[in-house]
Amino acid sequence: MYAWTDPSRHIIRISGEDTRDFLQGLITNDVKQLDQGAVYAAILTPQGKYLADFLLYPDGADVLMDVRRDQAPGLLQRLTMYKLRSKVALTAEDTPVTLCWGGDDLPGFADPRDAGLGTRHLGPAPAGATDATAADWAALRVALGVPEAGAELQPNDSFILEMDFERLHGVDFRKGCYVGQEVTARMKHKTELRKGLARVRVEGTAAPGTPIETEDGRPAGTLHTVAGGEGLAYLRFDRAAGPMRAGEATITRL
């Protein structure tokens, strides 16, 4: 078993008798799934653009929100704005989040995005685990095609369906209304996605954020996380059929 305590994560505790109803009207996934374990979801702008993503864990009547530390202040502010008269309390907690993968009987909540991501343990690394690093986690994400805030997921810019939230079990199309739901539903039912997240082969050197171009110089997307000769990119699918360039690297869609 590999384990890495991710310093970029932060826990927000949501408590009070209206907790689940409050979240149900805001987030992209169905809060009822907390009865089976962890839930992956996002909160969107009214225009349907990504603001923040997080994992939710049941803790008795409370819900724990596992979010990037640098997104927590803005998310707390937005949740407070939406709270109005709802009987909920929002509390920041300094609980370590340890990512565990590559073994049996892993501690914590199974990551609902992909079984290969293992579990998320609220506490320090378990005794006997092999210490992993941020680079190890990035390589695992790239291999499984999982975007991350601060890299592929860009607040006020990304659309979650272009970022594979449906494949990653981060959106429910039957749950009813939430902020940004109309735009998301329209993209699902009336639009063929022409751009989005893709795994790519990276041969050569290119930094995250490097623009990707076709061989004849047309813009094709942006390279994001790179690990071990592969990467995650945001691509125009109609321009990604052949070899592309990003800086000094050759990019090929996998």
TrEMBL record:
The lineage of its organism: Bacteria, Pseudomonadati, Pseudomonadota, Alphaproteobacteria, Rhodobacterales. The keyword Transit peptide applies. Residues 194-252 form the CAF17 C-terminal domain. Pfam families: Beta-barrel_CAF17_C. One of its GO terms (biological process) is iron-sulfur cluster assembly. This is CAF17 C-terminal domain-containing protein. Keywords: Transit peptide. It comes from Rubricella aquisinus.
